[in-house]
């Protein structure tokens, strides 16, 4: 068998040499190229059995292709084909036909002659019906009809009695007809994203159904019964609308239930009888209690409910329990004797103490942050296998010496408490690599810190600390955050040979620091919001990628020898923006008014529109647990007018180039566009178009989600591509200024399909969970760079404006941001509030996932 694979070779024409091998080629793949035409000589590949040419530019299938009688598999996914020739019936041996993501409005009647067809994929087209005689495809086991235009499921569909799998998600139908009962061999049914309110009684005949997905439907009632679905093992009902349950005995074989954001006020009384249930997720509902959790459940997610109580069967098999954001006042009694517990997250509850009956001998992760603990009980010393402990944002006044019993501890988060010192016994924590002490009451570096042998990351921000020189002996440290303290110099850093991430923002440093030869591993340095008159000196910036000098008193922009540097200086970019040249160093100098100013434009020079209350700004960033900081920020005061601010965040993916270059280039581009007699909304869209053209010229290989805000004395203008977010906080509420662009949104799906793309089963488009971005030049126009724009009137009750990446918003809701900022209004330093929000997000996701990059621009009124 001869196989030829020429994927991703930037081919624009069909390779002639393949035709020359006509007697040998049986499997041919030309995916992800730029081929626009298939030559007539394709008919010479007489032995061909499999042909895949997905993600090209084919608009027409040549008639010669249908001379290939041996073809069994034919894939034309993601092209621009509007019709399938009737002579397709000549491919009598075809078993798989994939026409996903084309421009088909109908299937030819002759397709019903392909009696050997087993798989038919026509997902993401424009179909409204199926051929009448499709029942002749008696061997068909899978048909994909998702993301089409079916307002009614075609009656002919239900004559395919041999179907095992049926995908009809994201169409427009509201009724599953009674004829569904004819598909008695179905094992998987996906009807996600339609307008279905009820599942018909006739579904009781689907006795072989194993996986049922009804997500994103306005269901009002669901029948859970062993008689209805005797073989059901997975049921997905996410984002439904408050369905009610028939009280029946539960399906005996069900192993997984997912009901996230389903509007549930209660679970069926039969829930405790789901004796084979192993994985259970009811995150984001209105449950105040849960019937006894079945014994075999190993993964239990009940986050973001109103739970006051949850019970478990004896000898429970729980291994992972996630119950954050509830109203539990104690650790559930049923969990105390669970010996197999591996991870337990009870953060954001009302728990006041540990329970001495805890017997979690295998526990590795414990999160009790954001509770009401005042002491760390001796019970903690039993957890000898604990690797990650989060006790942040409680009211703890001291760490006991028996913390040393946690000999396996690797990460210890205890930020946001009332600590003034740490016990010397902590030096025995030989496995500890991450220690977060931010937002406490330390007035000096606890001496024991320098004795912890393998510490890699230290966060001690937002403490009244003046002297940090003792940290110089931590030569193995790779991350140090001492933002929002009272530090006046940073010469101690020169002994830290492994340091990569250094945050000194919002301190009182006036002497330009010198980072010597020992600091050659520094990658990300933040000295923003200090009192520097000169930029830092780097003797060996071999790995330096980002330097934030924003909001200092700089009047001179320093070059880095042997490196391309770019930043904003007097309106001139300090780099040729040639991606093939040497390593680039990004330098932010926002707010350095002696170094860079944007002259006021006449359209914004109305003195009567000054704000009477000064606006203060600050930023906060964290690389978190990622390998690379791919976010960047904008925070420019008096931009083109008095009391006008340009704020923004860019969240990169697959690299840093687009995010970094966007925030370097966009202000100048937007400023020039604002000189035109057009609206600000129009100026936003034109500026995004210009910068996208620049990215094409530069050949960037990555992309970024972007949110930009132009704040004027009277209005807030927002432009957004993706899932960064801008939130306006008043004295009464938080207001989201623009919608996040998710591929599963019907408005976005319609645009994506029209552009020739499709949303995959995981809800992604082009591999991303967003449908708009800048950069990503190979995925245009499916991922559009055209922003959504909004305008919002400023009010007299305003308090804050937040622009942040999804690293914040994945963990902190708009309401949580409002509650935090509104309750901390008395905190004078805006930078401290920004840093607190950053830590809030980082700490909140520490128990069950890797924290994303976090970038926050905070504006206080």
Explain how this protein is built:
- By secondary structure, the chain is mainly beta.
- The chain contains seven helices and 45 strands.
- Among the domains are: 109 residues; 252 residues, Phosphatase 2c, domain 1.
- The strands form six sheets. The protein has a 28-stranded mixed sheet, with helices on one face. Strands 36, 37, 38, 39, 42 and 43 form a six-stranded antiparallel sheet that branches.
- Helix 2 packs across helix 3.
- It is globular and about 80 Å long.
Topology (elements, then pairings):
Blueprint (H helix, E strand, L loop, with lengths): L1 E4 L10 H5 L4 E5 L20 E3 L20 E3 L20 E3 L20 E3 L20 E3 L20 E3 L20 E3 L20 E3 L7 E3 L10 E3 L7 E3 L9 E3 L20 E3 L7 E5 L5 E3 L7 E4 L7 E3 L20 E3 L19 E3 L20 E3 L20 E3 L20 E3 L20 E3 L19 E3 L19 E3 L10 E2 L8 E3 L10 E2 L7 E3 L15 E6 L2 E2 L10 E5 L27 E7 L8 E6 L8 E9 L3 H18 L5 H19 L4 E9 L3 E7 L3 E6 L3 E3 L9 H9 L19 E2 L12 E6 L4 E7 L1 H4 L4 H10 L6 H15 L9 E7 L1
Parallel strand pairs: 1-2, 2-3, 3-4, 4-5, 5-6, 6-7, 7-8, 8-9, 9-10, 10-12, 11-13, 12-14, 14-15, 15-17, 16-18, 17-19, 19-20, 20-21, 21-22, 22-23, 23-24, 24-25, 25-26, 26-27, 27-29, 28-30, 29-31, 31-34, 32-34
Antiparallel strand pairs: 32-33, 35-45, 36-37, 37-38, 38-39, 38-42, 39-43, 40-41, 40-44, 44-45
């Amino acid at each position: 068998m001869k196989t030829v694979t020429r994927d991703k070779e930037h081919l624009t024409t069909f390779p002639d040499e393949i035709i020359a091998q006509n007697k040998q080629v049986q499997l041919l793949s030309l995916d992800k190229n730029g081929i626009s035409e298939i030559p007539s000589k394709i008919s010479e590949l007489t032995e061909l059995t499999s042909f895949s040419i997905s993600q090209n530019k084919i608009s027409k299938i040549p008639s010669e292709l249908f001379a290939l009688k041996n073809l069994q598999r034919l894939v034309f996914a993601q092209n621009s084909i509007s019709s399938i020739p009737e002579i397709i019936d000549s491919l009598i041996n075809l078993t798989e036909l994939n026409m996903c993501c084309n421009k088909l409005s109908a299937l030819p009647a002759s397709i019903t002659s392909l009696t050997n067809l087993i798989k038919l994929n026509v997902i993401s087209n424009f179909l409204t019906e199926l051929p009448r005689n499709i029942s002749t495809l008696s061997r068909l086991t899978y048909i994909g009809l998702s993301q089409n235009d079916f307002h009614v499921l075609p009656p002919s569909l239900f004559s395919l009695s041999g179907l095992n799998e049926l995908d009809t998600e994201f169409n427009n139908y509201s009724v599953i007809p009674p004829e569904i009962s004819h598909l008695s061999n179905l094992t998987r049914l996906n009807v996600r994203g339609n307008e279905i309110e009820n599942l018909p009684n006739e579904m009781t005949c689907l006795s072989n159904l194993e996986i049922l997905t009804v997500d994103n439907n306005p269901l009002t009632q669901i029948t859970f019964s062993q008689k209805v679905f005797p073989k059901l093992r997975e049921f997905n009902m996410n984002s439904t609308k408050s369905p009610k349950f028939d009280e029946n005995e539960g399906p005996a074989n069900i192993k997984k239930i997912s009901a996230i954001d389903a509007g549930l006020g209660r679970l069926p009384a039969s829930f405790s009888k789901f004796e084979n249930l192993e994985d259970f997720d009811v995150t984001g509902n209105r449950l105040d209690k849960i019937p006894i959790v079945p014994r075999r459940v190993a993964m239990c997610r009940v986050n973001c409910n109103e739970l006051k109580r949850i019970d478990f069967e004896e000898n429970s098999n729980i291994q992972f329990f996630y119950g954050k954001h509830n109203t539990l006042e104690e650790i559930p009694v049923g969990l105390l004797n669970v010996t197999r517990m591996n991870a337990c997250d009870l953060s954001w509850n009302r728990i006041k103490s540990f329970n001495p009956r805890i017997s979690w001998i295998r526990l590795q992760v414990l999160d009790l942050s954001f509770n009401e603990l005042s002491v760390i009980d001796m019970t903690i010393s039993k957890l000898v296998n604990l690797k990650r402990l989060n006790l942040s944002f409680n009211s703890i006044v001291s760490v006991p010496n028996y913390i040393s019993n946690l000999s396996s501890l690797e990460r210890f988060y205890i930020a946001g408490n009332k600590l003034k010192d740490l016990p010397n016994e902590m030096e025995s924590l030989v496995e500890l690599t991450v220690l977060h002490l931010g937002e406490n009451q330390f007035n000096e570096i606890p001496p024991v810190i320098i004795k912890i042998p393998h510490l890699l990351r230290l966060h001690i921000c937002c403490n009244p600390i003046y002297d940090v020189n003792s940290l110089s002996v931590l030569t193995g440290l790779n991350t140090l955050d001492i933002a929002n303290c009272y530090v006046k110099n940073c010469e101690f850093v020169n002994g830290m040979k492994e340091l990569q991430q250094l945050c000194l923002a919002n301190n009182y440093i006036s002497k330009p620091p010198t980072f010597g030869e020992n600091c050659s591993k520094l990658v990300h340095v933040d000295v923003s919001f200090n009192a520097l008159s000169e930029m830092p000196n780097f003797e060996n910036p071999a790995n330096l990628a980002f330097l934030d000098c924003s909001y200092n008193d700089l009047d001179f922009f320093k070059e880095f020898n042997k490196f391309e540097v770019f930043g904003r200086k007097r309106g001139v970019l300090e780099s040729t923006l040639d991606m093939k040249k040497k390593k680039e160093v990004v330098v932010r100098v926002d707010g350095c008014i002696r170094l860079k100013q944007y002259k006021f434009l006449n359209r914004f020079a109305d003195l009567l529109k000054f704000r009477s209350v000064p606006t203060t700004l600050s930023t906060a960033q964290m690389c978190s647990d990622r390998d690379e900081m791919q976010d960047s920020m904008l925070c420019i005061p008096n931009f083109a007018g008095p009391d006008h601010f340009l704020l923004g965040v860019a969240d990169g993916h697959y690299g840093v180039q687009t995010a970094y270059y966007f925030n370097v280039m966009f202000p100048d581009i937007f400023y020039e566009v604002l000189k035109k007699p057009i609206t600000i909304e129009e100026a936003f869209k034109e500026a995004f178009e210009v910068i996208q053209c620049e990215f094409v010229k530069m050949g960037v290989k990555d992309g970024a989600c972007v949110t930009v805000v132009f704040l004027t004395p009277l209005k807030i203008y927002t432009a957004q591509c993706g899932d960064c977010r801008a939130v306006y906080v008043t004295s009464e509420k938080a207001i989201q200024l623009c919608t996040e662009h998710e591929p599963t949104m019907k408005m976005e799906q319609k645009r994506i399909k029209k552009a020739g793309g499709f949303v995959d089963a995981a809800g992604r488009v082009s591999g991303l969970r967003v449908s708009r971005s800048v950069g990503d030049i190979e995925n245009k126009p499916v991922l559009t760079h055209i922003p959504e724009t909004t305008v919002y009137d400023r009010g007299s009750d305003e308090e804050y404006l937040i622009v942040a990446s999804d690293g914040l918003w994945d963990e902190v809701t708009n309401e949580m941001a409002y509650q935090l900022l509104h309750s901390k209004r008395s905190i004078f330093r805006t930078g401290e509030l920004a840093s607190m929000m950053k830590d809030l997000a980082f700490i909140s996701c520490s128990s069950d996932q890797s924290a994303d990059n976090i970038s926050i621009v905070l504006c206080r009124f």
